[in-house]
From TrEMBL:
<feature type="transmembrane region" description="Helical">
    <location>
        <begin position="203"/>
        <end position="229"/>
    </location>
</feature>
<keyword id="KW-0915">Sodium</keyword>
<feature type="domain" description="Cyclic nucleotide-binding">
    <location>
        <begin position="708"/>
        <end position="822"/>
    </location>
</feature>
<dbReference type="InterPro" id="IPR014710">
    <property type="entry name" value="RmlC-like_jellyroll"/>
</dbReference>
<dbReference type="Pfam" id="PF00027">
    <property type="entry name" value="cNMP_binding"/>
</dbReference>
<dbReference type="GO" id="GO:0051453">
    <property type="term" value="P:regulation of intracellular pH"/>
</dbReference>
<keyword id="KW-0813">Transport</keyword>
<protein>
    <submittedName>
        <fullName>Sodium/proton antiporter, CPA1 family</fullName>
    </submittedName>
</protein>
<feature type="transmembrane region" description="Helical">
    <location>
        <begin position="170"/>
        <end position="191"/>
    </location>
</feature>
<feature type="transmembrane region" description="Helical">
    <location>
        <begin position="320"/>
        <end position="346"/>
    </location>
</feature>
<feature type="transmembrane region" description="Helical">
    <location>
        <begin position="128"/>
        <end position="149"/>
    </location>
</feature>
<dbReference type="GO" id="GO:0015386">
    <property type="term" value="F:potassium:proton antiporter activity"/>
</dbReference>
<feature type="transmembrane region" description="Helical">
    <location>
        <begin position="288"/>
        <end position="308"/>
    </location>
</feature>
<dbReference type="GO" id="GO:0015385">
    <property type="term" value="F:sodium:proton antiporter activity"/>
</dbReference>
<dbReference type="Pfam" id="PF00999">
    <property type="entry name" value="Na_H_Exchanger"/>
</dbReference>
<keyword id="KW-0406">Ion transport</keyword>
<feature type="transmembrane region" description="Helical">
    <location>
        <begin position="31"/>
        <end position="50"/>
    </location>
</feature>
């Protein structure tokens, strides 16, 4: 075929894609549905002009359209990796983990159930062999990510609903395509009734092999991209190669799932990329992938739609009855998962509950598209599949896809409206009024400065100021006098606004590089949880999300267990360093929120709400300071290094701003500016490197690190090391309770504790001790001791501690100093001891 003609057809398809988006907006229909309709019309028109005798002038164009090299491998190897990879790069993984149970249930369990449901229903209703029926079930189980995600984004669906839909549509392709490969093999081998258990047993191997391949490829790609830190185009080029190579290696070399490999590679790059690449490079990389995915998604839809007339060409009446069977079986299987299994898991507290309107929207939003057609096309192209099966697979898959796009796709917006998911709640309406009021106040201030700078006419300024002031007054009054908003709702609105401003502050700090890109996703996710927590449960939801942002999660506890039991320190080092930096970032942002409360929220919601928000903010600051102090006491030098790093990065940002200002003022030329920024980039790369955190602790080193034991000789230290018991405690754990009989003295090898007695509290860190007073005074303590950071304690029993006090003058001096701080006479502690060291050696 003439290459010029093919190029012309493809360029024309891009024109169609460009026209489809504004057409979809005008008709208020999903973009993917418009593309599918246009593709079908183009395909029908090409067939018509080839077969009609009206004119032969358009025959070359029709032949070029129908002769496009559209094969299943083009969809699976060219377009699908692009769509899946971009979707993973755009996901907020931390927020997606909040709903990982329903996402996995829909992406894996629902696919298996739908495959079996459709397969056995077709086997009952037709004469097809069971293997072919299950193959059709696997094909129609794939919800199309480009169709589903674009529709739910276009209708402004609730965030949580969109997250669940996006996660399901991304991951269920992998499960369905893996099942497709299994049953396709049975059909090509001529096995009519496969052993289902044997087939499903291979399923985990396909998943695991693909996941490992994608992870390994992405880790290597990130390592290479980090080496090319100053070459942004090289980094983008490597990212473009990554999904395709991961897909091909998994499919062709390992025999695993290429789709899983692409998803794993995208998730790995999503997690590792922001911390290893410069912020601007990472932002540009994601923008490039957004454009590539837009083109790929549009082309895959329109090219797949071109095939629909040919796939339905030999359809019979009985085939449409089977399409009805497929529709009923697929919808019934999805309904069972959504309305039976998910509520059951929520009742058993194995999954967060998914609201009923959300489940109804998910049921109707399970659209099929180009992926389903591509799999059907792969069956029709295989010469090893009998002709009768090829025909039925093509017709059933195409008919079901058309039903989901034409019927479900066009009515999904209406369904969302009927469920009330597109309407603002009274709280959201009040929030919108608040936003208008706050925005207009800011605009008034900016306009006032602008009129002063340009020295505009006094009468004009006065008339426009009056007009604007009337609008502002009406907006503020509407926000203040909402009769249907209770006081608790005003508090909720204030918390949502506060959390939203916190998120904006984080984004500004990330752009300024005050907060590193490594921490950006984490602190932004915490801010999103604050917004959603306040929106869902008001003050309690906000406080719960705030506590979670400073809490030690399951991952940290697992890392601590690996460190303690197996000696694997790397995960704990990484998580501890991340926690240090996240807490410093939180403290930086929280200190600026008080001005927002006084400047914005007080104007709209009044003094009482503002004071309450100040109180909640003060508690958050105290919680962050407590957590940070615990880490400071645990690793005193590391906090200093992080703060020095912050100062260096701030200085570099200010230096860069000065260079840019000089360039804009014409004081330096482009060559000088390039040389200056090149040197600045080199220093910034060094400043971005996070200092290394050393948490390695060994028993002899633990003993030697205490100044209290410095005067003891090696033999005594060795015996003492054997006598000391090591105990690991997590943050929040109570170590000593009030009125508990004293039996041991505690030495803090790492971590930090807080002591509380008689309404007063104080903190101790690495190298300090507690419990000694109760032993020496021979009475139950009136002090409660609680860990404020994961801590390693060395414990010495009462008898050995008394012997150690006799031997160590440094220890006696430390005990004496501690007693004087608490107002205890040292004579009361050492009455039973001689001032000279005893001769006890049994430690």
């Amino acid at each position: 075929m003439d290459i010029v003609l093919i190029t012309t057809v493809i360029a024309s398809l891009f024109l169609v894609i460009g026209a489809a988006e504004p057409l979809a907006a005008r008709l208020r229909l999903p973009f993917s549905v418009i593309l599918a309709v246009l593709g079908v019309l183009i395909g029908v028109a090409a067939i018509f002009f080839l077969r009609t005798e009206l004119t032969d002038a358009l025959n070359p164009v029709a032949e070029a359209i129908l002769g496009l090299p559209i094969r299943s491998n083009v969809f699976l190897y060219v377009f699908l990796p692009t769509l899946l990879f971009q979707a993973t790069l755009g996901m907020n993984l931390r927020r997606m983990l909040d709903d990982w149970v329903p996402i996995l249930v829909l992406a894996v369990v629902a696919v298996v159930v739908a495959t079996l449901s459709v397969g056995y229903a077709l086997s009952w209703a037709s004469s097809l062999p069971l293997a072919a029926c299950l193959l059709i079930g696997a094909i129609v189980s794939t919800t199309d990510p480009s169709a589903v995600v674009s529709i739910f984004r276009s209708i402004s669906a609730p965030r949580r609903l969109a997250r669940i839909i996006e996660g399901e549509s991304l991951l269920n392709d992998a499960a369905a395509i893996a099942l497709f490969g299994l049953f396709m093999g049975f059909v090509m081998l001529g096995i009519p009734d496969p052993q289902l258990g044997d087939a499903l047993a291979r399923f985990p191997l396909l998943i695991a092999g693909g996941a490992f391949t994608g992870w390994l490829a992405a880790r290597f790609a990130v390592w290479v991209m980090a080496m090319f830190a100053r070459h942004e185009l090289a980094q983008i080029s490597i990212s473009v190669a990554l999904p395709y190579l991961a897909y091909i290696i998994a499919e062709q070399s390992i025999g695993a799932s290429g789709v899983i490999a692409v998803v794993a590679a995208g998730l790995t790059l999503n997690l590792a990329g922001p911390g290893r690449l410069p912020p601007q490079s990472w932002a540009n990389l994601r923008e490039i992938w957004d454009v590539l995915a837009h083109w790929a998604g549009a082309l895959i839809f329109i090219l797949a739609a071109l095939l629909i007339p040919r796939l339905l060409e030999d359809a019979r009446v009985g085939d449409f009855l089977l399409v009805g069977v497929v529709i009923l079986a697929a919808v019934a299987a999805r309904a069972v998962i959504l309305f039976v299994l998910l509520p059951l898991l929520a009742r058993l507290r194995l999954s967060p509950p998914v609201e009923r309107p959300y489940r109804a929207a998910i049921l109707w939003g399970g659209l099929r598209g180009a992926v389903t057609l591509a799999l059907a096309l792969a069956v029709t192209e295989s010469f090893r599949v009998p002709d009768g099966i090829q025909r039925v697979v093509g017709i059933l898959a195409t008919g079901f896809t058309l039903f989901t796009l034409i019927v479900q796709g066009t009515t999904l917006r209406w369904m969302i409206g009927r469920l009330g998911l597109d309407r603002l709640s009274p709280l959201d309406e009040a929030l919108s009024r608040q936003v208008v009021a706050v925005a207009l106040q800011t605009v008034r201030e900016d306009v006032a400065r602008t009129t002063e700078n340009y020295e505009l006419g006094h009468d004009i300024v006065r008339s426009e100021a009056k007009r604007f002031g009337d609008r502002l007054g009406a907006a503020v009054k509407s926000a203040e006098d909402s009769a249907d908003i209770l006081d608790r709702d005003r508090i909720t609105l204030g918390l949502i606004a506060l959390a939203g401003h916190e998120r904006d502050s984080i984004l500004a700090r990330v752009r300024e590089r005050t907060i590193s890109s490594r921490m950006a996703e984490r602190v932004l996710s915490d801010a999103d949880r604050l917004i959603e927590g306040a929106r869902a449960n008001g003050r309690s939801g906000y406080q719960r999300a705030a506590r979670r942002s400073v809490a030690y999660g399951r991952a940290f506890r697992a890392a601590l267990l690996l460190h303690n039991r197996l000696g694997l320190s790397r995960p704990l080092v990484q998580l501890t360093a991340d926690r240090f930096e996240a807490l410093l970032s939180q403290r930086l942002v929280l200190r600026d929120l008080g001005a927002f409360i006084d400047g914005r929220i007080r104007r709209i919601h009044g003094k009482r709400v503002a004071e309450l928000l100040h109180d909640l903010l003060a508690r958050r600051v105290e919680a962050v300071e407590t957590a940070l102090e615990g880490l400071r006491l645990q690793y005193p030098g590391y906090a200093d290094e992080l703060e020095r790093r912050f100062i260096r990065r701030t200085a570099l940002r200010l230096e860069e701003r000065e260079y840019a200002a000089m360039r804009d003022d014409g004081l330096v030329g482009a060559e000088v500016y390039a040389a200056l920024t090149q040197d600045l980039d080199a220093r910034r790369a060094a400043a971005e490197e996070r200092p290394r955190l050393d948490i390695t602790l060994r028993r002899p080193d633990l003993v030697r690190q205490f100044p209290l034991f410095a005067e003891l000789d090696d033999a005594v230290l060795k015996r003492l090391g054997r006598a000391l018991e090591t105990r690991y405690v997590n943050a929040g754990e109570i170590i000593v309770r009030k009125e508990t009989a004293a039996r041991s003295a505690y030495f803090i090898a790492s971590g930090a504790v807080e002591l509380e007695s008689a309404g007063q509290s104080w903190r101790l860190g690495r190298g300090e001790m507690f419990g000694q007073m109760a032993i020496l005074l021979n009475r139950a303590p009136r002090t409660e001791v609680r860990a404020i950071a994961p801590s390693t304690l060395l414990i010495l029993d009462e008898t050995r501690f008394r012997r150690l006090v006799r031997r160590s003058k440094a220890l006696r001096d430390a005990v004496r100093a501690s007693a004087e701080k608490r107002g205890i006479a040292p004579e009361d502690l050492f009455a039973e001891f001689a001032e000279t060291a005893g001769s006890d050696k049994a430690y």
